[in-house]
Amino acid sequence: MNYAMLKGKFLVLDGPDGAGKSTQITLLKELLDAKSLSTTALRDPGGTVIGDQIRQILLNPDHAEMSVRTEALLYMASRAQLYSEKIAPALASQQCVLCDRWLSSTLAYQAVAGRIGTDAVLNIARASLERTWPDLTIIIDLPSEAGMDRLGPQRDRMEQKSANFHRRVRQAFLDLAQSSKDARFAVVDGAASPQEVHSRICDAINQAFTP
């Protein structure tokens, strides 16, 4: 791979709960750092002081009464702050930005699984975000039951949702990757060792950015 081609690129790893996104972000950053590519790794929601406070509100199990539309608005607020404060400056300085989740998550969790509709979420995104889509979104696919088995006993508010909800989330990610006309997606199988999944992610990145 020509790692220089990732300068100034915005890459997102997304997928169902338990798919291994955080592990893969860490492995990818370690690789890019070793190749002397300036890289910033972030998470959504969060990544800023404001975003981390929004994250606590969103994921607190005590907030079971939160509506799906409120979820969507709060996720987008954290995302808007993250882009303005961290992502845009990093891209402007030709860093490669890696982000754990982005708009694809809100489309899967709130628009489809939460049933408020894709148009509603996209309208919020277009009104809120300076940039709607990254250069590449990699979906780490894993059956929802396997993802849930990977989670520990202390689950956040979203992780505590029903098995049917999480099955809808997984299918929504796959459908989005197949049907999106506005963004570039790749899907990798997450049901393997972390190193094997990492290798598949590197292959997907190489394929996406090699002329």
CATH architecture title: 3-Layer(aba) Sandwich
Rg, alpha carbons: 16 Å
The overall strand count is 5
**What gross morphology would you assign?**
globular
The portion of residues forming beta strands comes to 5-15%
SS-based class? alpha/beta
Mean pLDDT, rounded to whole units?
96
Uncertain stretches: none
First-to-last CA distance: 12 Å
* Helical segment count: 8
CATH topology term = Rossmann fold
The CATH fourth-level homologous superfamily: P-loop containing nucleotide triphosphate hydrolases
**What is the spatial order of strands in the main beta sheet?**
2-3-1-4-5
Largest sheet: 5 strands, parallel
Please write the string of helix (H) and strand (E) elements: EHEHHEHHEHHEH
Describe the structure.
By secondary structure, this protein is α/β, with parallel strands linked by helices. It has helices at residues 21-34, 49-59, 68-92, 103-113, 118-128, 144-150, 163-179, 194-209, and strands at 10-14, 39-43, 96-100, 136-141, 185-189. The chain has one domain (3-209): 3-Layer(aba) Sandwich (Rossmann fold). The protein has eight helices and five strands; from the N terminus they run βαβααβααβααβα. α1 (21-34) crosses α8 (194-209) and α3 (68-92) packs antiparallel against α4. The longest helix has 25 residues, at 68-92. The chain starts with 9 loop residues before the first strand and ends with a helix.
What's the short story on this structure?
This protein has 8 helices and 5 strands. The chain is of the alpha/beta class.
Topology, element by element:
Blueprint: E1 10-14, H1 21-34, E2 39-43, H2 49-59, H3 68-92, E3 96-100, H4 103-113, H5 118-128, E4 136-141, H6 144-150, H7 163-179, E5 185-189, H8 194-209
Parallel strand pairs: 1-3, 1-4, 2-3, 4-5
